[in-house]
Design goal:
Layout (H helix, E strand, L loop, with lengths): L6 E4 H11 L2 H11 L6 H14 L6 E4 L5 H10 L6 E5 L2 H15 L6 H24 L3 E5 L4 H9 L24 H12 L6 H10 L3 H11 L6 H4 L2
Parallel strand pairs: 1-2, 3-4
Length: 236
Amino acid sequence: MDEFKLKHLSTGDLLRAEVDKGTAVGQKAASLMKEGKMVPTSLVIGLLRKAIEENINAPGFLIDGYPRAMDQAAEFESTIGPCRLTLFFNCPMETLEARLLERGKTSGRADDNIDTIKKRFMTFQEQSLPVIDHLKKKGKCIEIASTSSVEDVYSQARIHFIPPAKLALKNLVLVLGGPGSGKGTQCAKLAEKYSLVHISTGDLLREEVKNKTPIGKLAQEAMQNGEMVSMVQIRY
C-alpha cells in the first residue's frame, strides 16, 4: 500500500520472475504452476527471505499469496517470524473464475486458463482454507468481502493499517504479578531508567489506611482478609 509506505511482495511474482530467468527454481516452479500445484515451501521461503532482506529498511511488508498451506505457515513463523495480521479477501468461486479468465486475455500468464484455474481452486479449498481457519482461531485473520469495487474493498482493508489514536497518557504500562513477584522492585528500576512515574495501587491503598480515611478503613478490612479491594470501595 503506497498510503502506508509498505513493501508489497508477491510470492507468485517472485516465482514467475524465476521462470522468466530460466533458473533451476523457475523451471521447477513452471511445471508445478501449470498443473495448479503448490511450489515446495523451501523454494518459496528462500525467495521470500531474499526479497525481505533486499528491502530490510521498509516500514513493513505486505506478502501477497502466502502462506497457502499449513506447512508454509509453520515454516514462515519458524524461519522469518509471526505475522501481525492476515487479510482474507473472500469472493465466490464463479466471480473469481470470471475475473481470472478476463485477466488471462491480456496477462500472458500460462496459469490463467480454465483448466489450470479449476485446479488452483481445488488446491485453494484443500490446502489454503485450513490456514485461514487456523489464523482466525488465533485472532489474526480479518475477512473482507471482495465482490464490490476496488475502492470499496480498499476502504475496508485500510482501516486495519491505521495506527490507533494516541493515549491521553503516553507510555501507560500495566504491570501484573503475584504477591512477592518483584513488581514493585522492577517498576522502581524501570521508572528510574526511563523517567517514568511509578504508581503502585497497593501503596495508594496503604496510604489511605495510614490516614484512616473511609476508603482506608474499607481497604484495610479487605486486605487483612487477602481479598481484593472492590471498585465500589475505591469510589466510595
